[in-house]
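Write out the 3D structure for:
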Amino acid sequence: MNHVLCIDDDVVAQRLYSILLKNAGYEVVNATSASMAIEKIEQQRYVAAILDYMIPDLNGLDLAGRIRRHADESIRKLPLIVCSASLDRKAVQQFTILGVRHFLVKPIDKELLKQTLIRASGREWDGKAITSLELICCNLGVDSTTALELLQDAAAQLRTQYAQLREATAVKEEAAVKMRCSALRSTLCNLGLRSDDEWMMEVRGLVTAVEAGMGSSPSDLESLLARMEGAFDRLHGDLAKLSEPLPASIPAEAKADVVPSETASQT
């Protein structure tokens, strides 16, 4: 049996979760507080946890932080779904930084809840903010479909610019290297990521190192370029995960597990 932990002090919400998810093959375990939730998470494995933003003893954001900092790696990777009647853009951004990808607004829609749970339970959080499409939606002010299209275009452009940078470094054209590095920085800004995102900081640092390392040995420069290529490979891998289709049993019109930022910001 697939167990789902529902963290909500509202008795009606608890009963509703149990009814809605039972027919979908899930067994719901309820927790009415953050401390109870941590206790239950440590007792058994869950395919996902649904948490309300406002819960006793800790808010949902603080609880998500405790889960992500837990000593047990399997608990840290627990897929989380935030379901609340009050969820603004700032809250979405803060949750997304913690690796939360799925958001629902009360009153709960039965089909959307099931579909979101299917997607959430099939993918553990991998610790990379680059995979957090909701945060990018917030930063760019667009829906998830548009955000993904923009990311794919930017990723393709980064590949092209990386190839051009390699050509410029191979012939030691310093002016061309500076121009290519500047172009890479511009495209990175269009990804909609936080400036302190781990992946973004890594790539920016590599671009700066390549630009400043034209006088370095060929092996050192090649090492920097290889690391940059590896970072772009991870970006393409994350985008491929975001583009994965839902199982065939899910209706085509329900293939979005991301609530658009304008919907998520309703209170």
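The two ends are 34 Å apart (CA to CA).
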